[in-house]
Amino acid sequence: MNDSQATKREADQQAGGSSALDTIPKLLLENARVRGARPALREKDFGIWQSWTWAEAAQDVKALACGLAELGFKAGDRLAIVGDNRPELYMAMTAAQAVGGVPVPMYQDSVADEMQYVLEHTEARFAVVQDQEQVDKLLEIMDRCPDLKHIIYKFPRGLRNYTQPFLHDIKEVEERGRAFDKDNPDFYAAGIAAGKGRDLAIMLYTSGTTGKPKGVMLSFDNLIISARNAIEFESLREDEEVLAYMPMAWVGDNIFSFAQSYVSGFCVSCPESSETVLQDLRELGPTYFFAPPRIFENILTTVMIRIEDAAPLKQKLFHYFMAVAARVGAPILDGEPVSFKDRVLYWIGGILVYGPLKNVLGFSRVRLAYTAGEAIGPDIFDFFRSLGMNIKQLYGSTEASVFITIQPDGEVKPDTVGPPANDVEIKIADNGEVIFRSPGVFMAYYKDEEATRATKTADGWVHTGDAGFIDDDGHLRIIDRAKDVSKLNDGSMFAPKFLENKLKFFPFIKEAVTFGHDRDYVAAFVNIDLEAVGNWAERRNLAYSGYTDLAGRGEVADLVIECVEKVNRDLAADTHLAGSQIKRFLVLHKELDADDGELTRTLKVRRGFIGDHYAELVDALYSDRDHCPIEAEVTFEDGRKGTIHADLRIHTIEPVAATAEPRQAAE
Length: 667
Fold this sequence. Notes:
The protein is α/β, with parallel strands linked by helices. It contains 22 helices and 27 strands. The strands form 7 sheets. Strands 4-3-5-6-7 form a 5-stranded parallel sheet, with helices on both faces. A 5-stranded mixed sheet has the order 23-24-25-27-26, sandwiched between helices. A 4-stranded mixed sheet has the order 2-1-11-10, with helices on both faces. α2 (24-34) crosses α4 and α13 crosses α14. The chain is globular, with a radius of gyration of 26 Å.
C-alpha cells in the first residue's frame, strides 16, 4: 500500500468509515487529524484576537452538535443562522450538518418581516443568532413562525432579564452537548458517517430583486468540488489568511470563508464589527481577499480624498509614481517585458508610494484578490493591479456555487470575466443569454419546482439570465441581465445595468438607476456618494446640512453632469450602445436604501420597484419640465419613519455624435 492509499484509508476511518471526504463534517475531522494545531478560526472581540485551532474547533462543533440533538434537533431539520461573521456561527453550520440538519444563513440586517418569510418557508425549528438585536427580531415574529421552537444566542449582553425557556446561551448548549455525548458516545460519529456528498448541505436565499427570494439548495458535492477546483486553479494553501466580513447568507462567503477553508485547511478571521473591518484588515494582512466592486471603489475614494488633503510634496510624489505604476505596474505583475529604467522607477515607487499605501490598506500580503457581483470600473481595477495586487474578476452565482468563470494569471482584462472555471461548460443561447453546466449546479429551488424547471434543464444546463458573448480570446463578457436588455423607440439597444455601472465608476456617484425601455431616450436617477462629494464640498467651503441639501446644490449637479458627459462620450464610441446615451437625469433627494425596499440586502437595485415608487419622477424625466417637487417617506436606522420634501432639478445633456455606425446586432 502506498502513502496516498494509507492516508485515504486513515481519512476514511476518521470520517466514520465513509468512502470519501465528501461532507464538511468529514473534512473537519480530517483537518483536526492532519493539522490539529494550526489555526482554523479567529475572532476579534474587545480589541483582542482569539483563535481556535482545528482540533479545538472540532471539539466545539461536536459539543454544539450534540447539544442541538439534546434539545431535539434531528436529521432534516433546518437551522437558521443570523448574525455577523462569528466563529460560533460558522461552527453552528457544521454542527447542524453533522447531525443531518441543514443550515440556513440569513442576512443580519434583514428586518423582522423579511426574516419571517425565510423562517416560514424553511419551517426552521431552531435558530442560532449573534446577540440581543437578532433575538428581539425573532421574538417579534415568533407568533407568526409556529415551527420555531428554540433560539440560541452567542452574546448574552442585554439578555439577563429574558426568561423565556426557549432562549439558550450557546455555552449552555455546548455543556449540555458534552453531557449528551458521554451518554451517547456513538451518536456524533454515526451522524457524520451517514452523510453523503449528494446530501443537501445548505440553503441560501437569493436577493429577490424581482419578487420573493428563492431558496437555493446546494449539496456537499456542489460546495466541496467547486471549492477544490478553484483551490487547484489558484494554488491556494493551508497557510492562507482570509478575512470573513461579507454576509454569511451570501454564497461567496460560504465558498471563500467556509468550504474552501475546510478543503484546504486555511484560517478564517472574523472582524470585531462591520465598523472595524478596514482596521482589522490592516491588522490581519490577508493573503486571499474578496470584495465586491463597491468596496474597492470606496477604498479608492478614501485614498484620493486623503491625497487631496496631503502636503504638496506628497501629492506630487503620489501622482508621479502612480503614473509610472499605471504604465508598467500591470505588465510587471503579469510577467511581461519592461525596460530596466521603468523597473527601477517602479521599484523606487514601491518604497515611497505603493508599499506604504498597500500597508495602510491592509493589502501588503495579498497574493490573490477577487471581485465579482457587478462590473468594476476599469480605472479602479487597473489602479489596484498597478500597485502589484493580483486582483482578478470572476463571474458566478448562487446557483453555480459561485464559480462560472475565473480570470487566469497573465490573462486579466478589465472588460471581461475570464474563461470558464475548471469543469465548467458555457454556451451562449440564441437570444444571447449565458448558460452553463458544472459540478456546482444547484440541486433545486426549495418548494419551487416551476422556478427550478425554468432555470435548470433536465441535462443540467442553467440559465443565468445574463446576456453576454465570448470574445476572440475565449473570455466571457457580460453585457446586462438578459431580461433587462431592450430597445429604445428608435431601435437602439438599451442595457440599463451596463449604463448604471458606467455611472458608478465615478467616485462621486454611489448609485444610479436608468430608464429607457420603449422610450425615446435614456434617463437616469443618480445618488451621489456622500463621503466623496462631502469632502469635495468641504475643501471648497460649501456648507451643507445633510444628503438632501448637498444633493440639491448646483455645484454638485455640475459634478454629475461632467460624469454623465464622460459616459456619453464612451457610449458614442461603442458600436452597440451609441444610441443609448443619457439625455436627462436628476439627483435623488435621498440615498436608495434596502430598508425602503429600493435595494436588495446584497445592495442590488430593485429597478422595477423604484420605477413604480417614483413614477412621478420618471414621468417628469420624460416631459419638458425642468424640476419636480417630491415628498417621500424614509426609514431611519432606528426604525422610525420620516418624510423628506425636496424640489428636484432635472438636467438635460446634449448627445455626443456617434463615432461608428451601429452594427446590425443593435438594430
